[in-house]
From TrEMBL:
UniProt keyword Nucleotidyltransferase present: no
A GO biological-process term: maltose transport
Family membership noted in the UniProt record: Belongs to the bacterial solute-binding protein 1 family.
PROSITE patterns in UniProt: PROKAR_LIPOPROTEIN
Alphabetical list of Gene3D superfamilies matching this protein: Periplasmic binding protein-like II
InterPro entries noted in UniProt: Maltose/Cyclodextrin-bd, SBP
Coiled coil stretches, renumbered: none
Keywords: Signal, Sugar transport, Transport
Protein name: Maltose ABC transporter substrate-binding protein
Residue stretches of biased makeup (Low complexity): 29-60
Example of a GO cellular component annotation carried by this entry: ATP-binding cassette (ABC) transporter complex, substrate-binding subunit-containing
Ranges for region Disordered: 20-63
GO molecular function: carbohydrate transmembrane transporter activity; maltose binding
Length: 446
């Protein structure tokens, strides 16, 4: 029997942070033609679809599962248009009805809907959600053939696993890098001192107002703060013998991390970092030529391209007394709900369709994140030099922890960063306090 296709999209929505937003420490899940989406290797139904019905208005505050749809997908406002195109083709091939709905907080709204028995079949989001989703029994294990899995990068595959079980399919890898306005800073700074010198000269000449744009804000940004800690070998969690992050080995107050905290305080005093720069103005400072540098991810590039800024993507600099600033690696993924209404259809869409080269090339448009699938990466890298530049900048990056304990980290560590950058607190004492706060939160399960 033929079924009509419905793709329900809201007109406006707030944009999630990528590895991130309010639910994680990652960067913006922002926007950024491509080939058509691939087709799955098996069919979830028979027949072909008729013309799509008129879009249904879906609340971004409280998206509700479409009871008439065979497959419901929740994504943020940026990812939804691309996911819609993929869903259109999948639905047409399989003769099913699909609803792609926008949620302004995919992770939080999914948790609420799951408990109420109204969860979508598929959600799109960051890999650091995984540990909590598994702990809550909220996502289903996936059976991805070894022949398919081998086509993805090693880090992307690792991000989909928890306790050696696969729970998602990756589509994009993201990391921070130094984006440079080539007109204001013709030479890439190798060191933080070089960056400060070039930025200070730009400010002194009144061409710029800021040495560097880097998100801190009044509550801090632990994701953007991490590279300043990693430059000294510091970080958040130590690792077990098998390389997994160990929630019982918190290193926020370790000697190496405290060196990074001292650097944050120093850069705050020098006005290189500022709590006045956050996710509302960081990109605009760079896009309007008010700073020669921004530490950001690929999700920011569409705004810079729209503004006509000539830029280059460089690795993060080294720091005096330490080494290279190393960013977290984040992976954007598709998850299948443990309570999917039509689990077979959902699994086929995610494991057979999202894994194709054409689908992954289309998904590259979501924030310009380098594709997780090697074949798709090679395809887009032919025409987009930024892809290889992001890859180079993230070469030594470490996967952001996806263990449930990370939920206890973002708030306390971010606030500690903000307090030392603003000069409200001394770095050693404030980071030791943050470690105590994080440890207590982990033990209490918050």
């Amino acid at each position: 029997m033929k079924r009509s296709l419905v793709v329900a999209l809201a007109g406006t929505a707030l944009v999630l942070s990528g590895c991130g937003g309010s639910s994680s420490g990652g960067g913006n899940s922002s926007t950024a033609s491509s080939s058509s989406g691939g087709s799955g290797s098996s069919s979830a139904g028979s027949g072909s679809s008729t013309a799509a019905a008129a879009p249904t208005s879906v609340s971004t505050d409280k998206p509700q599962r479409d009871a008439n749809a065979d497959l419901v997908i929740w994504a943020d406002a940026t990812a939804a248009p691309v996911v819609q195109k993929l869903a259109d083709k999948f639905a047409a091939k399989n003769g099913i009805k699909v609803a792609v709905q926008i949620a302004n907080d995919v992770r939080g709204q999914y948790e609420t809907a799951f408990k109420a028995g109204q969860a979508p079949d598929v959600i799109v989001g960051a890999h650091d959600w995984l540990g909590e989703l598994v702990a809550n029994g909220a996502v289903a294990p996936l059976q991805v053939p070894a022949s398919v899995e081998s086509g993805f990068t090693k880090n992307a595959v690792a991000a989909t696993k928890f306790n050696n079980q696969t729970y998602a399919v990756p589509y994009g890898v993201e990391n921070l890098a130094l984006v440079r306005n080539t007109a204001l800073a013709p030479t890439a700074p190798k060191t933080m001192d070089d960056l400060i010198k070039a930025g200070t000269a730009c400010v002194s000449s009144k061409k710029c107002t800021n040495i560097l744009s880097n998100q801190v804000g009044k509550q801090g940004n632990a994701y953007n703060a991490y590279p300043f800690l990693s430059a000294f070998g510091g970080g958040i969690f130590g690792t077990k013998a098998n390389g997994d992050y160990d929630p019982n080995n918190l290193i926020v107050d370790s000697p190496n991390t405290l060196k990074g905290a001292a650097l944050l305080a120093q850069l705050g005093k020098q006005k290189v970092l500022s709590t006045n720069i956050d996710d509302t103005n960081a990109d605009n400072l760079f896009a309007t030529g008010k700073t020669p540098f921004e530490i950001t991810g690929p999700w920011s590039l569409p705004a810079f391209q729209k503004a006509g800024v000539k830029y280059a993507v460089d690795p993060l600099p080294t720091v005096a007394g330490g080494g290279q600033m190393v960013p977290f690696l984040g992976v954007q993924m598709f998850y299948v709900s443990a309570k999917a209404k039509n689990a077979t259809i959902a699994q086929q869409f995610v494991t057979n369709y999202v894994t194709t080269k054409d689908a992954q090339v289309q998904l590259f448009q979501v924030g310009k994140r380098p594709p997780a699938l090697t074949a798709a990466y090679d395809e887009v890298a032919k025409t987009d030099p930024d892809v290889a530049a992001w890859n180079t900048a993230g070469k030594n990056g470490k996967l952001m922890p996806n263990i449930p304990a990370m939920n206890s980290v973002w708030g306390p560590l971010g606030q500690a960063e903000a307090d030392v950058v603003s000069g409200k607190a001394q770095p050693d004492a404030r980071f030791k306090k943050a470690a105590t706060e994080i440890s207590a939160a982990i033990k209490s399960g918050k």
